[in-house]
């Protein structure tokens, strides 16, 4: 499976650890940077990674910044994307099984690398179950579709 990966400068170290971890487990990683600790703006990375999902480059992605909040907010601004901030296995499992999250976000200042790997493993193993959650995800998708339609209408 291909998986997108990106971070800002605060998340760079954890992103690199996760890149190696995923590669060792046989994932093909599409790395959108950043490439060091020089400051970068997290929305730039989040938008590129989210767009890659919508373009079909990979089905899932991981974004890392200082707290995870910025990446989550930015990725969720992309119509059609569901990003979930998770720092524990239970949240990660529900993000996959109930929320059908395309993107897992984490905060490098919040979570230790070994715990981040555990959270990542749980999220990757969690497939969307549908059921009652499908109705809720459908409502989110309908809202995204209406937003897209409004944007495409001439003024």
Number of helices: 6
CA gyration radius, whole angstroms? 15 Å
Low-pLDDT residue intervals, each spanning 5 or more residues? none
Biggest sheet record:
5 strands, parallel
Shape: globular
Structural class: alpha/beta
Considering the protein shown, what is the CATH homologous superfamily?
Answer: Sugar-phosphate isomerase, RpiB/LacA/LacB
Integer count of domains: 1
Question: How many strands appear in the DSSP assignment?
Answer: 5
**SS strand fraction:** 15-25%
Order of helices and strands: EHEHEHEHEHH
CATH topology: Ribose 5-phosphate Isomerase B, Chain: A
Distance linking N and C termini: 42 Å
Task: Please give a handful of descriptors for the protein shown.
5-stranded parallel beta sheet; 6 helices; about 50% helix; about 160 residues; alpha/beta; about 15% strand; Ribose 5-phosphate Isomerase B, Chain: A
Describe how the helices and strands are arranged:
Blueprint: E1 2-7, H1 12-24, E2 28-31, H2 42-54, E3 60-65, H3 69-76, E4 83-85, H4 89-97, E5 103-107, H5 113-125, H6 132-152
Parallel strand pairs: 1-2, 1-3, 3-5, 4-5
Can you describe this structure?
It is a single chain. By secondary structure, the protein is an alpha/beta fold. It has a single domain (2-152), classed as Sugar-phosphate isomerase, RpiB/LacA/LacB (Ribose 5-phosphate Isomerase B, Chain: A, 3-Layer(aba) Sandwich), CATH 3.40.1400.10. It has six helices and five strands. It has helices spanning 12-24, 42-54, 69-76, 89-97, 113-125, 132-152, and strands at residues 2-7, 28-31, 60-65, 83-85, 103-107. Strands 2-1-3-5-4 form a five-stranded parallel β-sheet, with helices on both faces. α1 (12-24) links the parallel β1 (2-7) and β2 (28-31). α2 packs across α3 (69-76) and α4 packs parallel to α5.
């Amino acid at each position: 499976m291909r998986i997108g990966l990106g971070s800002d400068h605060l998340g760079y170290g954890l992103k690199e650890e996760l890149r190696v971890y995923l590669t060792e487990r046989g994932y093909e990683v599409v790395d959108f940077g950043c490439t060091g600790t020089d400051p970068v703006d997290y929305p730039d990375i989040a938008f590129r990674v989210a767009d890659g999902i919508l373009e079909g480059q990979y089905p899932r992605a991981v974004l890392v910044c200082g707290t995870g909040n910025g990446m989550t907010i930015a990725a969720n601004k992309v119509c059609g994307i569901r990003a979930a901030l998770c720092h524990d296995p239970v949240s990660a499992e529900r993000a996959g099984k109930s929320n059908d999250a395309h993107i897992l976000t984490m905060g490098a200042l919040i979570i230790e690398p070994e715990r981040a790997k555990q959270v990542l493993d749980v999220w990757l193993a969690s497939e969307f179950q549908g059921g009652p959650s499908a109705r809720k995800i459908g409502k989110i998708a309908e809202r995204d579709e209406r937003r897209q339609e409004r944007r495409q209408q001439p003024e």
